[in-house]
Design goal:
Blueprint: E1 7-11, H1 16-27, E2 31-36, H2 40-49, E3 54-58, H3 64-78, E4 83-86, H4 104-132, E5 135-140, H5 144-147, H6 153-173, E6 178-185, H7 191-195, H8 197-209, H9 219-229, E7 241-244
Parallel strand pairs: 1-2, 1-4, 2-3, 4-5, 5-6, 6-7
Helix pairs in contact: 1-2, 1-9, 3-4, 4-6
């Protein structure tokens, strides 16, 4: 699954799953565009530590102009975008809240960052990938969209929408040999989850106990699946949602 000579944009690459994905893709040969609204340089530094070229872009993925500028910077630096990993999402500091208490502003912000961003990034790379008749798009979703989760209504809705969007985009991109898939993690021991002690104390033991594999999920468990979908080995896989959750969701 070598990615030698490829260029990957990874959104939300400053921390957590995005950082681990940037690290692994670069270890397998890819140049990295690390995009994040905070700490974007961390993803770029991880790639450079693996001997790859990398740039960091401070990008609000819910803003079309910022997303277009991110892709323009990638093309200016590397001349191509082969892989797009849509990982950025609202998760850090997420609070458990009954759906009756979710405000309109909170719900819209969740949809903007977690769902609209996928549409915007895919629009931004579309012409380039279609012209080259090559592209690997990997969206990060969540097992909560299949199972539901109490007190996370906005987050669950946003990730469920990305599942449907992934399948719709796979159909539209397919004639131009661009594949679109998604990775569905379970509860994973990322920095933001471990820092959110109230959240971690509730969901970590439930996630571990309801898996076929009775252990915590680590960022590298998820990143390996994303790396497969970003590779040429996944060239005949599209519109699929791959659960990297230790055997928790079957679909």
């Amino acid at each position: 699954m070598s990615l030698e000579g490829r260029t990957a944009i990874v959104t939300g690459a400053g921390t957590g799953l995005g950082l681990e994905i940037a690290r692994l893709l670069s270890a397998r040969g890819a140049n990295i565009v690390s995009a994040d609204i905070l700490d974007a340089e961390r993803g770029a530094e991880a790639a450079r530590a693996n001997g790859r070229r990398a740039i960091a872009t401070e990008t609000d993925v819910s803003d079309k102009a910022a997303v277009d500028a991110m892709v323009a910077a990638a093309l200016a630096e590397f001349g191509t975008v082969d892989i797009l990993v849509n990982n950025a999402a609202i998760s850090r500091g997420m609070k458990l809240k009954p759906f009756e208490e979710v405000t309109v502003a909170e719900f819209r912000r969740m949809i903007d960052v977690n769902t609209l961003s996928v549409l915007l990034t895919c629009q931004a790379v579309s012409a380039h990938m279609r012209a080259r008749r090559y592209g690997r798009i990997v969206n990060m979703v969540s097992g909560t969209a299949f199972k539901g989760a109490p007190n996370l209504a906005a987050y669950v809705a946003s990730k469920g929408a990305v599942i449907s969007l992934t399948r719709a985009l796979a159909q539209e991109f397919g004639p131009d040999n661009v594949v679109v898939n998604a990775v569905s993690p379970g509860y994973t021991l990322t920095e933001s989850n471990l820092e959110n002690t109230a959240f971690d104390s509730v969901y970590r033991p439930i996630a571990r106990d309801t898996r076929a594999l009775k252990r915590d999920a680590l960022p590298e468990d998820v990143a390996r699946v994303a790396a497969f979908l970003a590779s040429d080995d996944a060239g005949f896989v599209s519109g699929q949602i791959i659960a990297a959750d230790g055997g928790s969701v079957y679909h």
